[in-house]
């Protein structure tokens, strides 16, 4: 992988949220494209690329070696953040998995509640359950954006621990900090509403929530 190789839109959006000069931990790294790109382009001085399974980790190892980045990126077999030390990462990317699993990885991490750490989270599913967890556990959403990759719309959240728990309206777990005036945000919200409409066939409460999402999209 050379420095000119572009990330897909999903990983590029994750990369945009990483602070310049931050040490990175990429959880669920697979091919290690993200840490290689960030280190090659001078965003991160070093990174840990971690995965729970040996096979994707070996793919990541190949990417790192081909890029000549073995001096900057270490590969780590790790269940979530269990094998990552607090001083190894300032910014932590957890991407490409379900929202409930992302929540569990954060909850199981001893240093997640360090307000200096930034988490960049990209749930493939159940973003509402991830937001529910974050609000209840004192994590604040600093920024949220959306992208389309492989014809699917995804959201990425930038969060950090503030200790401010939020008992919030159910609607927020679906809308977060998205702006319905932005086309991709609107698309993501529309897909939420469509899923809720299907669930409403067995429970009308979901239909009421879908109506509320659709209403904010009209304003």
| Number of DSSP E strands | 7
Ends: how far apart?
45 Å
Order of helices and strands: HEHEHEEHEHEEHHH
Uncertain residue segments: none
Sheet with most strands: strand arrangement: 3-2-1-4-5-7-6
How many distinct helices?
Answer: 8
The CATH homologous superfamily of the largest domain is called Vaccinia Virus protein VP39
Shape: globular
Strand content: 15-25%
Give a structural overview.
Helix content is 39%, strand content 22%. It has two domains: 9-165, Vaccinia Virus protein VP39 (Rossmann fold), CATH 3.40.50.150; 178-219. α4 (99-107) runs parallel beside α5. The chain starts with 8 loop residues before the first helix and ends with a helix. It contains eight helices and seven strands; from the N terminus they run αβαβαββαβαββααα. The chain is globular, with a radius of gyration of 18 Å. With 219 residues, the protein is α/β, with parallel strands linked by helices. α3 links the parallel β2 (47-51) and β3. It has helices spanning 9-16, 33-40, 54-66, 99-107, 127-136, 170-175, 183-199, 204-218, and strands spanning 24-27, 47-51, 73-77, 91-97, 118-123, 139-149, 152-161.
